Amino acid sequence: MSAEPPRRRTAILISGRGSNMAALIAAAQGPDYPAEIALVVANRPDAGGLERARGEGVATACIDHRPFGRDREAFERAVDERLRIDQIELIALAGFMRILTPWFVRRWEGRLINIHPSLLPLFRGTHTHARALEAGVTEHGCSVHFVVPELDAGPVIAQARVPVLPGDDEGALAARVLEQELTLYPQALAEVASGRVALVEGVVRRS
Ligand code: GAR
Q1: Nearest residue CA, atom 16 of ligand 1?
Q2: How confident is the model over 50-77, as a mean pLDDT?
Q3: Closest ligand 1 atom number to CA of residue 128
Q4: To 10 degrees, what angle do helices 128-135 and 170-193 make?
Q5: Count of alpha carbons within 13 angstroms of residue 179, beta-carbon side
Q6: Which atom of ligand 1 is nearest the CA belonging to 21?
Q7: Probe ligand 1: pick from 14, 20, 113, 151, max atoms within 8 Å of CB?
Q8: Measuring from each residue's beta carbon to the nearest atom of ligand 1, which residues come in under 6 Å?
Q9: Which listed residue (116, 129, 140, 145) is catalytic?
Q10: What is the tens place of the pLDDT at every residue in 86-130?
């Protein structure tokens, strides 16, 4: 009888309602999933995802960024300390709306992934759905990528596409993209946690 491979201890960082977080938690309940969601960290006490995570029996921490003022790195040191106490190996950003400093990103390089609601490299940053509509694209979607110091510029692990339909407004398009996010992110995290996908010298390697 062979031992099961260890599941990678993963933290999810959130700022809001946590639908991607909930999808990752649900996927990780599967017996063969290669990641275990060991911790959810929010930078806002009112993040709805905190309550959802607790309801699923996942450990949570709220580290409010506001007392740290402009000192982003001091906030990140507090987050980093908690991640280390909890022996976290991988981080999945899921609607985490703080820009991370190069200090934090380099510390977690190759072990830090994000989901972004656009087909990167298109529409980095915020308000992606409104900008896609304004640009008149016929196709939109979401991307999971390794995080690098430059915002939303890291190597892409996986993407899902949706059509932009006549009459779409921001809400309709966001909902269509989110539906894809909830499938794409658990798949991408599994690929990284199992080692099938890795960041090697700044490039995504698949094995
Ligand atoms: C998601 O659409 C996610 O892709 C996006 O925020 C939403 C969070 O929703 N992330 C970003 O814009 C990151 N720059 P959720 O909290 O319900 O998962």
Answers
A1: 18
A2: 98
A3: 12
A4: 120
A5: 9
A6: 18
A7: 20
A8: 14, 16-20, 49, 94-95, 115-117, 178, 181
A9: 116
A10: 999 999 999 999 999 999 999 999 999 999 999 999 999 999 999
Kindly list the strands in the beta sheet with 90-93, ordered across the sheet, starting from the edge strand earlier in the chain: 60-62, 35-42, 8-14, 90-93, 112-116, 139-146, 156-163
- Give the integer Cα–Cα distance in Å for 101 and 160: 28
The answer to whether residues 202 and 155 touch, using CB atoms and an 8 Å cutoff, is yes
Query: Is the distance from CB of 112 to CB of 42 less than 8 angstroms?
Result: no
- 127 catalytically annotated: no
Alpha carbon distance, N-terminus to C-terminus of the chain:
26
CB proximity list for 194: less than 8 A, separation 6 or greater: 34
Ligand 1 atom with the shortest distance to the CA of 17? 16
Could you give phi then psi for residue 89, rounded to 5 degrees? -110, -30
pTM exceeding the 0.85 threshold for the entire prediction: yes
User: Which of 19, 114, 142 to probe ligand 1 with, by most ligand atoms within 8 A of CB?
Assistant: 19
Distance between Cα 117 and ligand 1 center (Å): 7
Phi-psi region of 87 (alpha: psi -120 to 50; beta: other; left: phi over 0): left
| Cα 105 to chain centroid, rounded | 13
CB 164 within 8 A of CB 131: no
